[in-house]
Amino acid sequence: MKNKSLILLLGLLCILQAFFIFSIFPTSKDSLNEPFLYRDHAIHYAQTLRMISFFKTGGRLSGYDPYFMAGYPSTFFDLVDNCGLFVFCLLLSPFISVAASIKTFIFFMVILLPLVLFIACRNFGLDLKHSYLAALLLIFVCNVFWFYRRLITYGTYSYLFAVFFALLAFSCI
Questions:
Q1: Per-residue pLDDT reduced to its tens digit, 29-73
Q2: C-alpha to C-alpha distance for 115 and 121, rounded to whole angstroms
Q3: Which among 39, 6, 25, 2 has a CA at the least distance from the CA of 111?
């Protein structure tokens, strides 16, 4: 019984998080294949397109592009920050557009943040009640203070995901 209630409460956390995220994301069918072209999103979109091209032609995730930032070694330095995004988009590139795969990545990663925090809290020894409270506070604070809207608007999502997954990895030690 306890496992069923745990799964139910974790599912409710995901549903609550998805509800808030759906209020931010554009939901029309046409907007799914249109990339976010403001702030850092345009750079991430261009880097992801370049990375897919480099991988398909040379089998590597990095390469030289003379048309981007005067010969900047494209995706070489960016791999640290966006490697998860690049690999996710590369795997989905035969099936959906790059813009749709970037939006899918952001959506699922933001939904996973409260679960990652919950699991990290449990690994650090907090009881169920406090772990749920931490996840609910994350959802509440990030939505009330428009943090998710800023995250999606400014395009700094990879850093946040890296921080939360580093917290999870640290909690497993």
A1: 556 667 766 677 777 787 788 888 888 888 877 777 776 666 666
A2: 10
A3: 25
